[in-house]
Amino acid sequence: xxxxxxxxxxxxxRAFCKIGDSFVVAQREFRRKFGIxxxxxxxxxxxxxxxxxxxxxxxxxxxxxxxxxKTVRTPENIALERVAxxxxxxxxxxxxxxxxxLSEASFRRILHEDLHFCPYKIxxxxxxxxxxYVNRVNFCQTFLQLINQNQELVNNxxxxxxxxxxxxxxxxxxxxxxxxxNPIEFHERPLPK
Length: 193
Hints:
mainly alpha
């Protein structure tokens, strides 16, 4: 796309309005005025139409300044969202915007850009009772003695995959805590007997 100067844009708008709203004639006049050969580009009809529209709206053929006005990310909506997330950080980020009357994209933009919240994964670990600490220490000491006696034992017992389902299933890929700082929350499940 050619970067047209302000004077060229102004001439195209004047030619369009003077000739009687004809894009083709305005392009011909533009070509003649600025000495542009027949096989070279001139402003398109769409470009001239945009310049005329901008001139009628702002008095200038140049691009309009400014952008869209924030209608959703208002201080009131940001405050409402902060209160809602702090009250219940475990609630789904897909269901919450519906209750607040926001789109999911606006909701997430407020979370990230305005509140500086991040999603944190749940950490699943085994709930230990007092007697289990002693058993774990005893097992570790016994296992260390076995390793010292036979180094090949480690290669035979260990693998790179493990799936543990204790007394239920928690899909931590779909579960997030929204907070400005990591809450370091644990989900403890007792081992079934």
